[in-house]
Amino acid sequence: MQSELWGAPAASQACAQTLQWPIAPPPGQWASAWTEWQAQPAGQALLGRLALRLQQGATIYPPDPLRALRLTPLDAVQVVILGQDPYHGPGQAQGLAFSVAPQVKTPPSLRNVFQELRRDLQTPVPLHGCLERWAQQGVLLLNTCLTVEDGQAASHAQWGWELFTDALIRRCVEHATPKTFVLWGAHAQTKRALVQPPHRVLTANHPSPLSATRGPQPFVGCGHFGDINRWLRAQGRAPIIW
After folding, report:
1. Torsion over CA: 142, 146, 149, 150 (sign)
2. pLDDT recorded at residue 17
3. In angstroms, rounded to a whole number, what is the distance separating the alpha carbons of residues 73 and 39?
4. How far apart are CA 156 and CA 129, in angstroms?
């Protein structure tokens, strides 16, 4: 069964931690984007602000804000799923949009994602909410803001991460391989103007229980997972094992 493929990652990857400082640069083709951003006033200001909050005793998640870039090299990106900011509960955030550590209860939005996956492709609901397997198949799970403080949703919004993640989206657009950008909810859809052909965009409401069934584009029934796999097959590429 496909659900058997969703065994928990190694304990060293799944353990709950707070932000590890300093942030290690990303590898490969992502490295230059990080270096360029660090040299800009916005990058310097954000890193300085993070350092100050750590000195003041703040608890910041996730342990590795750039983990999505480590698991999905630029050359491997086939799909980009945009989130907003990391989960703000202890042990939840992994540095991957929508994903949680295997031992953490699946959040409501991700439960709706899994229910839509089951409806669309008739696959079993995964045993846990860790989406590393998606990332390792070329699905870039990118939040637009990459850090958050304990118990304070969107606490680092507008600190400067958005400029960096916009630059990452542009790198994906400039890269030759056609990609599908998945924009769930109004926040993600503000990035639609960054995406140009030959890439394509899929949109729907956010999978949150507050919006998943509302019009004009309900998340429930959107069929994005099957759509992406049909598109990949049409290009001679392997489908994603969701």
Report:
1. positive
2. 82
3. 22
4. 24
Amino acid 103 reads: Q
pLDDT of residue 15: 52
Catalytic residue chosen out of the listed positions 75, 85, 120, 166: 85
Residue corresponding to tokens 């799944």: 14
Low-confidence ranges of the chain (pLDDT < 50): 1-14, 16
Question: pTM, whole model, 2 decimals?
Answer: 0.93
**CA nearest neighbour of 79 among 178, 187, 145:** 178
Our answer to whether residue 85 is catalytic in this structure is yes
* Number of helical H runs and strand E runs in the chain: 9, 6
Give the whole-number percent of the chain exceeding pLDDT 70: 93
- Give CA angle at 157 (188, 144), nearest 5°: 35
Q: How far is CA 65 from CA 109, 112, 192, 241, in A?
A: 21, 24, 23, 25
